[in-house]
Fold this sequence. Notes:
The structure holds two protein chains of two kinds. Chain A is mainly alpha-helical. In chain A, about 65% of the residues lie in helices and about 0% in strands. Chain A is built from nine helices and no strands. The radius of gyration of chain A is 20 Å and the shape is elongated. Chain B has three domains: about 10-65, no CATH class; about 80-245, Jelly Rolls, CATH 2.60.120.1440; about 255-320, 3-Layer(bab) Sandwich (Phage tail protein beta-alpha-beta fold), CATH 3.55.50. In chain B, helix 1 (about 10-25) crosses helix 3 (about 45-60) and helix 2 (about 30-40) crosses helix 3. Helices cover about 25% and strands about 35% of the residues of chain B. Chain B is globular, with a radius of gyration of 24 Å. At the A-B interface, helix 1, helix 3, helix 6, helix 7 and helix 8 of A face helix 1, helix 2, helix 3, strand 14 and strand 16 of B.
Amino acid sequence: MEKPGPQRDTTDPRDPGAAMTASEVDQWFAREVLPLEAALMQFLQHHWRNRTDVEDLVQDVYVRIYESAQKQLPERPRHFVFTTARNLLIDRARRAQIIPIEALPDADTLDIALDTPSPERNAIARDELRRLQDALDRLPPRNREAVVLARIEGLTGREIAARMGLAEATVSHHLSNGIAALADMLYGDTTKDAGPK
Amino acid sequence: MSEPQTSASAVKAAAAHWFERRNFWPVSAQDEADFAAWLNASLAHRAAYVRLEAAWKRSERLGVFKKSARPQAPLAPRRNLRLWFSSAAVAATFAVALVAINPFAPAPDADIQTFATAIGGHETLALSDGTKIELNTNSQLRTRITATERKVWLDRGEAYFKVTHNAKRPFIVVAGNHKVTDLGTTFYVRRESAKIRVGLVEGRAQVDALNAKTSVPSVQMMPGDVVIASANRIETEKKSITALATDLGWRSGLLIFKHSTLAEAAVQFNRYNSEKLVIAPAAADLKIGGTFKANSIADFAEVARVVLGVHIAHTTEHTIISR
């Protein structure tokens, strides 16, 4: 776990029996799995009739992925993520007896369908800045202000409270809401393309 | 193992709470122990926390809006001065400290206070009636608060008003040839060369020409309205409240652009900086969007360079953007 700022959390290997250290898994998860979140959500929405379950299903997929990855990091992350999702849906479907299992495409098909050629590097950097900007713009105004003061101006919670003229508990609320919403928009957003409005 | 978990939204909220707490507030050893216990209680917690960390790390790129691309004289942190005054005497002390009193005021009047900011300045005034005024860069206003009337002259620049409404004591802002009367209101007034611009955030307000001879009727504003008034006409634009928030980015020291041309952006930056931004004609119409620190032309130029592929040159007092 790494914490931005001066302190560094060095409590690292959490399970001496595990093949991978916790931080290796964390880094792998952030690098390989999180960028697939929007596609994963799309897949789950498409194949699970109750859309309100999707956020919980994503969480369950992540837990399964973490469990496996602690033993060994999968070689083909994308394939692994969608296979895990598919298996989860099958387990759920069996239990609830709702959808025929054959309705689910197998992960190999998915793999091909979802693999897109990587765009040129510059374009990615440009899109990323736009996407970030766009996500920021879509936060509720107070959340946004708190996040901007924290992220762009580098202020602490207390400084933000003073700047915004709000109680510290209120700032805390705006910040954590804003950061959580930012994460949802950066990773999970399937509703719209990033880009200037 | 993988179920049942606490609902994902509850886990996300807890992760955000911990992340926010550990990164922006002083934490005790006990807090850290509690955090470790929470983190290790479930892999769902761990995944949610790592996800937030990663998102925050990703948003670091937004810091280009702050970090200077080249060495710069350190800027004084913006003062967020709050002036609370209950008596004219106290107010006068502040006024002397803060401003140069304009000797050409309407009439020498003990009740008149003058406030001004320099280029890049931003001051918050809290009037004794509860009204709050924020003065933007390079602006000056005078106030006369009496038992029967509250009057403000915006002599230069821009101000944001959050008015404590009192029907018996109207709040009037005079800017150039027009006056804005508050009817329970949050609004801003900006003076541009021959025009004034009034944006209404909430409540109601009315804009009138001062000169009764003009045939322009008064305008009743609704929230989201932006009125642009020049010598002989008043136009109203309907904007969303979010779009208005964009106009008010300066309250956080920010300039916010959505599909603005570089030329328009330069006009805004030049309001806030004594060092000026110059756009070559060939680059003037290129569009840019984003949130920028109002006091850093260098950051803006760097983003324009990266995003639009323009060229940047510097002279002692200018930053020049060309294609």
